[in-house]
Amino acid sequence: MSEKGTDRVKRGMAEMQKGGVIMDVVNAEQAKIAEAAGATAVMALERVPSDIRKEGGVARMADPRITEEVMNAVSIPVMAKARIGHITEARVLEAMGVDYIDESEVLTPADEEFHLLKNDYTVPFVCGCRNIGEAARRIGEGASMLRTKGEPGTGNIVEAVRHLRQVNAEVRNIVAMGEDELMTAARDLGASYEFLKEVKLLGRLPVVNFAAGGIATPADAALMMELGADGVFVGSGIFKSEQPERFARAIVEATAHYQDYVLIAKLSKDLGPAMKGMEMATIGAADRMQERSW
Amino acid sequence: MKIGVLALQGAVREHAQAIQACGAEAIVVKKAGDLAELDGLVLPGGESTAMRRLIDRAELLEPLREFADSGKPMFGTCAGLVLLAKEIDGQEAAHLGVMDMTVARNSFGRQVDSFEADLDIVGLDAPFPAVFIRAPHIVRAGEGVEVLCEYEGRIVLARSGAFLGCSFHPELTGDHRLMQLFLGMVENRELLPTAAHYSKI
Q1: Which residues 6+ apart lie within 8 Å of B5 measured at CB?
Q2: B133/A253 Cβ within 8 A
Q3: pLDDT tens, position by position, B78-107
Q4: Are B53 and A38 an interchain contact pair (Cβ–Cβ within 8 Å)?
Q5: Run of H or E residues at A101
Q6: How confident is the model at residue A237 (pLDDT cuts 50, 70, 90)?
Q7: Cβ atoms within 10 A of the Cβ of A178, count?
Q8: Chain A residue closest to B111 (CA)?
Q9: What pLDDT score was predicted for residue B190?
């Protein structure tokens, strides 16, 4: 008797990514560069977040041709992005055999009210969160992995730091609470009581939580690990830098050895310009991807 | 007893917890110097290609091979099994290449085909709950490799001298019987057959 698509299998897949770097790629060539650099997985998408931001328009699931070519090009897991609430994009990606789906606020949401019921799928999902309430709601819907939302495509780490600190502070609060305080916390946080009980028992979130949304340098990646991320997603940071191969390798190494500061200094030397990046104050409320979904 | 866990990437914490639950001390291994005091080493699940890149950049390949040559036991799970293998199906070069077997990667399919199953394992009196995630399996077991479990005709757990390797992830369940088996190998190291001994049989 064997069983597919169980929580253990879906969450376990994310456990195997820990300490690793998942890189955004838009074609097979980039996927090969990512794999050769030591990425633990690649994320196939149509445009990296900084291009989505620049070019505007509706951002959708990538052309299946691209995803297929990426899947054929590498032996590491391939993830792909579907729009929030877009049942059909998610089912198409599942049917194609992608290894993980990111129900992502980087793409234009298909549904502004409802997320996917991710429990219904065999393929596992990763979702973004800014606080423990969002984390609880996504896990409640069946997400098997979380990441901070940060602010994608900015090359600015400040929002990812804010979100990771927020989630971790809330986890610590829950752990320190008396059991009789959990129901009120559940009401205030928009998290289920059962979820908070589980967090209190485990002393951590029940799934892996990566950092994402603004990582542009090896030191950024190491910072997120220092703050307690289980691993990192790098979107525009690699292929928008001037030396993608070197950036990719340096970020992989800095993530694994995030407290070896002599090494990070060495890795960061002469890397050339990182992606240019954006100051948060220059991004209007309507252009903040993190505000998509609740 | 000090047991290292190669901590470049993957399910490090889970293995460390299993080691501690079995009463041994768990040591995180990130560089060659960390291997010095160890009695045994666990190669955890994760992504084998990513681990190999990090092994090379941390200049760990030769120290790990020397550790294996010294006769100290090693236990590889999933990606760790791939690291131990002498040959990898469809790839020109192996990684540590210390256990005489050929391993095929991702041989049960992609993530949607990942599964849980209860396994009958030689020497265990009750089934073992196993989690297979994009799992490899052993397509050829060399001389002296003792097959401890097959699932649907595929070898998923084997032992050879001081090496123990499996396709699945015992670290993801609370069942520590395989870790206990490994710690038993570490404890009784001098009784383990060596590769040379096998070749004489």
Answers
A1: B12, B15, B16, B19, B26, B27, B28, B29, B41, B42, B44
A2: no
A3: 999 999 999 999 999 999 999 999 999 999
A4: yes
A5: strand A100-104
A6: confident
A7: 7
A8: A99
A9: 84
| Residue A277 pLDDT grade (very low, low, confident, very high; cuts 50, 70, 90) | confident
The single-letter code of the amino acid at B157 is L
- Structure tokens, B178: 């395989």
Q: Which domains does chain B have, with CATH numbers?
A: 2-197 (3.40.50.880)
Mean pLDDT of chain A: 95
Q: What is the ipTM of this complex?
A: 0.94
Instruction: Give the model's pLDDT for residue B195.
Output: 55
Domains along the sequence of chain A with CATH: 7-270 (3.20.20.70)
Alpha helices in A38-189 (DSSP H): 49-55, 64-73, 87-96, 132-141, 158-176, 182-189
Tokens at residue A79, please? 């993830």
In this structure, the number of other CB atoms found within 10 A of the CB of residue A114 comes to 13
User: Which of A10, A81, A200, A240 is labelled catalytic?
Assistant: A81
Structure tokens at B8: 């470049």
The residue among B141, B195, B197 whose CA lies nearest residue B166 is B141
| B61-69 and B48-57 helices, crossing angle to 10° | 100
